[in-house]
Amino acid sequence: MIPTPFDYEVATSLEHAVSLLAGGGEEAKLLAGGHSLLPLMKLRLARPTALVDIGGLDELREVREQGEAIAIGALSRHHDLERSELLREACPLLAHAAGQIGDPQVRHRGTIGGSIAHGDPASDLPAVLLALDAELVIRGGDGERRIAAADFFLRPFETALEPHEILIEVRVPRLRETCGSTYLKFGRRAQDWAIVGVAAVVERTDGRIERAAIGLTNMGPTPVRAAATEASLSGIETVDESAISAAASRAADGAEPPFDTYATAEYRAALAEVLVRRAVRAALV
Amino acid sequence: MATAERYVGGGVLRKEDPKLLTGEATFVESITPPGTLYLSVVRSPHASARVRNVDVAAALEAPGVVAAFNGQDLAEEWAAALPMAWPVTEDIKHPDHWPVAKDSVCFAGDGVAVVLATNRNAAKDAADLVEVEYEVRESVTAIEDALADGAPLVHEAFGSNECYTWALANGDVEATFAGADVVVRERYVHPRLVPNAMEPRAVVVQPVASAGEFTMWSTTQVPHVARVTLALTLGIPESKLRVIAPDVGGGFGSKLNVYAEEALCLALARRLGRPVKWVAERSEDYLATIHGRDLIQDIELAATAGGTILGYRVRLLANMGAYLQLVTPGIPLLGAFVYCGSYGGQAYSLECTGVFTNTTPTDAYRGAGRPEATYAIERAIDTLGREVGLDPVEVRRRNFLPAGDNVPSPGGLVYDSTDYAGTLQRALDLLDHDEVRAEQAARRESGDTRQIGIGFSSYMEMCGLAPSQVLASLNYGAGGWDAATVRLLPTGKVEVVTGSSPHGQGHVTSWSQITADALGVPIDDVSVLHGDTAVAPLGMDTYGSRSLSVGGVALHLACGRVIDKAQKIAAHLLEVAPDDLEFESGAFSVKGVPDRSKMIQETAFAAWTAHSLPEGEEPGLEATYVYDPPNFTFPFGTHICVVEVDTETGAVDIARYVAVDDCGHVINPQIVDGQIHGGIAQGIAAALFEEAIYDDTGTLQTSSMMNYLVPSAAELPSFELDRTVTPSTTNEMGVKGIGEAGTIAAAPAVINAVVDALWHLGVRDVGMPATPERVWRAIQEAERGGSR
Question: How far apart are CA B336 and CA B509, in angstroms?
Fold first, then answer.
């Protein structure tokens, strides 16, 4: 519970953060809410030599409309997302999911950028961003680039972020009125990671499902989409329970769920089926 | 003592809380004498290994490091190995347990070296630099694996992993089973649990080198026991060792022990002549503080066709871990007499085998032996009921021992007072049992994915450890008495000195209530001193729900002695005979002449000035009572748990939890309710959440609060509590213990409820903890296999 020694620098602006990070050497890490990094450091599983604290950069803590999208500053706390009137109206899935992360203390400290950049397949927001087809804005020494959430998560705790890049913004689409959505999280304790989580966005027209997007938490080395289920749902009648169940039975197709002290892979696959079915039904209400 | 009750039984707020809530409490961690060196222990990552070489040279070069030693370097410090006080049989195998391993390690967490530095972080960083050469051996962590032929030996010299086998028998068990209409056979497995006191362990030792004296502050439940045993381990005269347990943040039995780090801080303070401090990290506490439970039970009930139990036959396999800590071997014995629970019968036998494994040693954890026993009988009686066609309520009623005083049990004990049917009825009324059963039937009928189950636990337990002669018969190494001193100061204020050492229970409040009522003084005039062997030299400390029914009774009796003396002084001052006085609300008044009186505070001043005392009376007004209880106390009650089980995911939600407990007379209802709340929470934790898991290499996988699942308030329901009052006949206060009852009662109520919810689906058992996956698998298997 005592980290190895490290240098600590406070960034006063985004530019400052970029330069501090670039000058901090190979093992420099950003510190935002600290709710993923600090526990790892206390267990000495992470041993950064320098921390660049960006927690005070309020310029990265805004939730605003940006054309058809909602732009969310990377330092927005989970609590900010949960309580954002704009998100609740335009993209309720993200507000709903953010409200299920950890406990109130975690939600007041933890940030969306930290949660995404950490690349933990058990975190809730990555699967939500997949289901929303979100876009991520990244700042490095050479300026800004954008990347689809679908291309961002590479392996457990490994993302498309280069060593000295900073994730600065997350952009999610405004959901149409024909869209229903929900995030179902199955865990042992309120503050635990999900054993399995399901983010579902279901769009319907004229009594049929037009499109379904389903992101799965903790069902593989990265967050994944339940592609087979999505394909099966497309075009079916919203009241067709057996078709929904059949589609849900393919929730874990192609997934490589982990095996840990919480659950076996087999159980996770079974759970994904049940939760996907329930999430789709809930999104259709 | 005819004093009107003013405080006992009332809602007195805890006197301890303001300082705890405002950060003014003194925990061991907050004590740092000038010149303190911080100790870090290098621990083996291997479950079993020969230690070929331990090189501390690099650590010695690190910044801030003052000293570093391996096990050989420290070998001469020990006059004896670490203490084990309960050799349950004559032929028990007892391995030497050194504070730092000399040549081999037997569990992951065993210490191999120590580093001392001028600050805590430096000590921790330097500990990483100690180079240890291990020759890793095969290890074994599970009980049955350790008993298998060819199993790796935890201690090679013993030739097997069996530590002891202890047996108990009453009545003709063989004949009873041979003649029974029905025999129920069940096997239950109790997972290993991690106690997780809120405050991790910590030790500070300050030496007075010139005098050869040592003061040790420790997060201990047992300062008195620690003083005696550590004096022996270190070869320090007991008189030169002062042990202080300041504010201690919980223990649950895990601090009822004497640990390597206590011995190390003493030895290193002696060697270096400087204060030495060690504070466990939470993850270190998971490895180096005792674990609880880890037991396999085979229980058989012999019964009539009508469901009346005739006999009990129990076989236990108990995981000792790698070494025997203070009372490791005796833990199963604390439950060995109560596998019959609240029920009758004519024959009883029990055999327990202790088994060594390459794991953290087990020892006392809240309930210690009785949660295990209660689980076995409360689950097995449900099975018996189903075998003979009786519901859980009826099969219990049919078998309850009668209500009364001094009731003999099949296990050979005499229960102080009983009214088992009374708490069951009260709990049924509180629950509205018929309504819940109707809802259960409706859900079964509709095939709902949320099925309801009702689980019962009509528990009893034995606590208030203990009559010293009974402990002697079990080969326990100490007595079961406790002591109290009541001292009236010249100003009339009262000091109570207790040998019971609190660590969160609220002794200061309860003891103040008892004293204030007995002496007729304001509660704020009473101070309670504890947890320091220099202030309270006589004591047997706090564990086994013993404080009130032993230490509290000692206090009550000491108050009586003080009043007797005060009465003689009052009589002298009033120039009457002592028998002419009556004592009421702090005043000694002449019978029939109430305005001729002396307050007890006035007698205290007179005793201090000693200007005019009765002939032959000593100055001063204080008295000590050392009380050895004639029997245990036997609290009881009925807990009913209602669960909703999601049959698709296996998730278990507790919908209702009703608990009716009887601990005799209650001193402080709020404290009793708090104990029951916390106790139930820990029982539910065992039933649904917590499990220490070792992997194949003997590494503890659940080694932090991230993956060892201590439930929070969010996972627990609101408990619905009530109580009945059946005074104990063991002591004249009529009180029983309550610190462990909730934990003892809860787990079988929860698991019985889970099984009840799924019985119609063919599920016959679900192991602890009933995780969603375990429940889901039980349902899947039942669906595949049909009903039994």
Answer: 34
CA distances from B180 to B305, B311, B377, B602 (A): 8, 9, 18, 69
Of A4, A260, A271, the CB nearest to B649: A271
Give the phi and the psi of residue B496 in degrees, each rounded to 5: -110, 130
Contact between A195 and B772 using a beta-carbon 8 Å cutoff: yes
B24: amino acid identity, one letter: E
Phi/psi at A138 (5° precision): -125, 135
What is the bridge-based pairing of β-strands B720-723 and B652-662?
Answer: parallel
Q: Left (φ > 0), alpha (ψ -120 to 50) or beta: where does B509 sit?
A: alpha
Of B413, B376, B419, whose CA–CA distance to B401 is shortest?
Answer: B419
B1 pLDDT more than 60: no
Q: Please compute, for residue B42, the number of CA atoms within 13 A of its CA located in the half-sphere on the CB side.
A: 25
> Omega before B302 cis (within 30°)?
no
Provide DSSP, B373-430. HHHHHHHHHHHHHHHHT--HHHHHHHHBPPSEEEEE-TTS-EEEEE-HHHHHHHHHHH
Task: Give CA–CA dist B328/B319, Å, rounded.
Answer: 9
Whether the pLDDT of residue B787 is over 60: the answer is no
List, in order, residues 6 or more apart from B738 with CB less than 8 Å away: B545, B548, B635, B661, B663, B672, B675, B676
The model's confidence at residue A26, banded by pLDDT at 50, 70 and 90, is confident
Q: How far apart are CA A43 and CA A46, in angstroms?
A: 8
Task: Kindly list the strands in the beta sheet with B276-279, ordered across the sheet, starting from the edge strand earlier in the chain.
Answer: B65-70, B111-117, B37-43, B276-279, B202-208, B213-218, B241-244
End-to-end alpha carbon distance in chain A: 46
Question: Which residues does B781 contact at the CB level (< 8 Å), separation at least 6?
Answer: none
Which of B199, B706, B780 to substitute to test the interface with A, most A CBs within 10 Å? B706
pLDDT in tens, B735-774: 999 999 999 999 999 999 999 999 999 999 999 999 999 9
Torsions phi, psi for B720 (to 5 deg): -105, 105
Given an 8 Å threshold on Cβ–Cβ distance, is A189 in contact with B121?
no
- pLDDT at position B4 is 52
Decide if B288 contacts B260 (C-beta within 8 A): yes
State whether B283 and A267 contact (CB < 8 Å).
Answer: no
Distance CA B578, CA B139 (A): 72
Cross-chain residue pair B714–A263, CB shorter than 8 Å:
no
Task: Point out the residue among B121, B648, B693 whose CB comes nearest to the CB of A2.
Answer: B121
Say whether pLDDT at B3 is over 70.
no
Q: Which of B282, B649, B706 sits opposite A186 (nearest CB)?
A: B649
Q: What is the count of residue pairs from A and B with beta carbons less than 8 Å apart?
A: 56
What residues have CB less than 8 Å from B455, skipping those under 6 apart?
B392, B640, B641, B642, B643, B748, B749, B750, B751, B752, B753, B754, B755, B756
Q: State pTM to two decimals.
A: 0.97
Q: What is the DSSP string of A110-169?
A: -BHHHHHHHT-TTSHHHHHHHHTT-EEEEEETTEEEEEEHHHHEEETTEES--TT-EEEE
Average pLDDT, stretch B564-574? 98
ipTM of the complex: 0.96
Identify any residues that bridge with B67 across adjacent strands, giving them in sequence order.
B116
B709 and A264: CB-CB below 8 Å?
A: no
Q: What is the pLDDT of residue B788?
A: 43
